[in-house]
Design goal:
21 strands; five-stranded mixed beta sheet; 3 domains; alpha+beta; 504 residues; seven-stranded mixed beta sheet
């Protein structure tokens, strides 16, 4: 038994385990080398935080709410931006970020931001630098115990509260891990799309575990597509993202004739991601150009990204780089309050898997790593004052989960490009309806969680009959105030709409 188990080893999981370890033992459950298989490890841009002399958290708040397309929970946004400076201090002390002078991090501007407020690692692979830093601290902590394996089911008591997880090791049978509190930090579900920036493990399994245990999910239709992914036609999980920090550095987006098609937008190449993704999607061809920039400074700042591009045969400084939008970040997730509490007792969620409402319908660039840091502290602080004792169920009430009839890999093969073709950057009711019916059929025939969860995503996208943020419908191209709210899924209940009221 353990006081707390944290599932996941991205920024949210590692940071939550470290925060909890300040007051008690914690078990971290993730696959072997799982921290290298996280979206955090792939993240390039940086962390958004108002540290500049011309900046203030109120400006960061305004940008976040504006980009969220009138669907953000304003109290959650306030917590995010006001806590930012304190949350990144350990990383600054850990020498993660490029510095401007001895005490102040260098800052750059990214899409949707009104000011330069992105702190970043030299070379461009900020997420990897943060993951390595947090992982090394986890490995040095005597209070953090690593269990290698995947969480395949939550253990629930007769009252419905969460009592821990079933763990499937790389070899052998699943075993129960009892816990007083269970924290899901399992990331998003953007790898349901074949064209994705995410690792193939980002399929929404944490969402499904929570849903299967009775927790509420919200906003599954809102999936953000990163505008600039290198267009190479590679298999799912192998795409190379080209950070929008390159556009903040001065890169241009051009069409096949070399014309800059973002010039009519007020923020041009630094317009919010939903706008840039749609603009690129509607081009027969789109390219990112950096050949007009200082090559030496480009390689100094983005050397690691340039090396990754070179490994694929591209010269970052000289070549027109073909780009397309790919599924990147999920605003939808397990409904939580600002302390990470879900609708199931003793079950918590943090990071991309959680829905605090902080991102609304469209995430502001580089708010995701900040979210992991800030809400990891919030969950830990709540648990410090509300400790629950781990309790075992009677042996007769504990039933080991049965394996699925097909593997996740086989399910993904059958899913194919269905999500890309029907639930991509631009959507339409008729095609979504056909795809939803096909997913429902697959779920019934194959009895695999991937089809069941993708069906929930499809139902939400079909039901929201408007365009808002990352959800754009060609047959309903405008936002509608009647849809200012959340579509909620909960096991045993019909999908329902909950209007957003006040600051939530």
């Amino acid at each position: 038994m353990t006081p707390v188990v944290v599932v996941g080893a991205g920024i949210a999981g590692l940071a939550t385990a470290l925060e909890i370890a300040q007051f008690e033992d914690v078990t971290l459950c993730a696959p072997d080398q799982g921290w290298k298989q996280s979206s955090t490890y792939r993240a390039q841009g940086g962390v958004a935080v108002a540290l500049g002399p011309d900046d203030h958290y109120r400006y960061h708040y305004d940008d976040t709410v504006r980009v969220a397309r009138d669907l953000a929970h304003e109290n959650a946004v306030a917590i995010l931006v006001e806590s930012g400076e304190e949350a990144v201090k350990p990383l600054i002390r850990g020498e993660i970020f490029e510095m401007q002078g001895e005490t102040a991090p260098a800052m750059e501007q990214e899409a949707g931001h009104s000011r330069a407020r992105i702190v970043h690692a030299v070379g461009g692979l900020t997420g990897r630098a943060i993951a390595e830093f947090l992982y090394s601290k986890v490995m040095r902590s005597s209070r953090i115990h690593w269990v290698t394996g995947r969480a395949v089911q939550l253990i629930t008591g007769t009252s419905g509260s969460c009592r821990g997880i079933w763990v499937l090791p790389s070899s052998g049978s699943p075993f129960p891990l009892w816990a007083g509190a269970t924290v899901l930090a399992t990331g998003g579900y953007a790898a349901l799309w074949q064209q994705t920036t995410n690792p193939t493990s980002s399929l929404g399994q944490g969402h499904w575990l929570a849903y299967d245990a009775g927790a509420a999910l919200a906003d599954l239709e809102f999936v953000q597509f990163h505008p600039t992914v290198l267009d190479e036609g590679v298999p799912r999980g192998q795409a190379l993202l080209l950070t929008e920090a390159l556009r903040g550095f001065g890169a241009y987006l051009v069409d096949g004739q070399g014309h800059r098609f973002m010039q009519d937008y007020p923020q041009q190449e630094l317009a919010p991601r939903d706008e840039v993704a749609r603009a690129i999607y509607q081009q027969p061809q789109a390219f990112l150009r950096l050949d007009h920039l200082d090559a030496a400074e480009l390689y100094r700042r983005f050397g690691d990204i340039a090396q990754l591009a070179a490994q694929r045969g591209w010269n970052l400084a000289a070549d027109p780089l073909p780009v397309y939008p790919a599924a990147h970040f999920c605003m939808g997730g397990i409904r939580t309050d600002t302390s990470g509490r879900t609708t199931v007792a003793d079950l918590y969620a943090v990071g991309e898997v959680a829905h605090t409402g902080v991102h609304g319908a469209n995430r502001l660039a580089s708010n995701s790593l900040l979210e992991g840091l800030v809400f990891a502290r919030r969950v830990a602080q709540y648990l410090a004052g509300h400790r629950a004792a781990a309790q075992e169920l009677n042996d007769g009430a504990l039933i080991a989960p049965k394996p699925w009839t097909i593997s996740d890999e086989t399910a993904l093969e059958q899913l194919g490009r269905m999500m890309d073709d029907n639930f991509g950057v631009m959507r339409a009711g008729q095609t979504m309806d056909r795809a939803r019916a096909r997913l429902s059929t697959l779920a019934a025939q194959e009895n695999h969680w991937i089809f069941s969860f993708a069906s929930l995503v499809a139902q939400s996208a079909l039901e929201r009959q408007e365009s808002r943020g990352a959800h754009f419908r060609s047959d309903a191209p405008h936002s509608d105030a009647r849809w200012r709210g959340h579509l909620i899924h909960q096991k045993g209940r019909s999908m329902r709409f909950q209007a957003l009221s006040g600051k939530e």
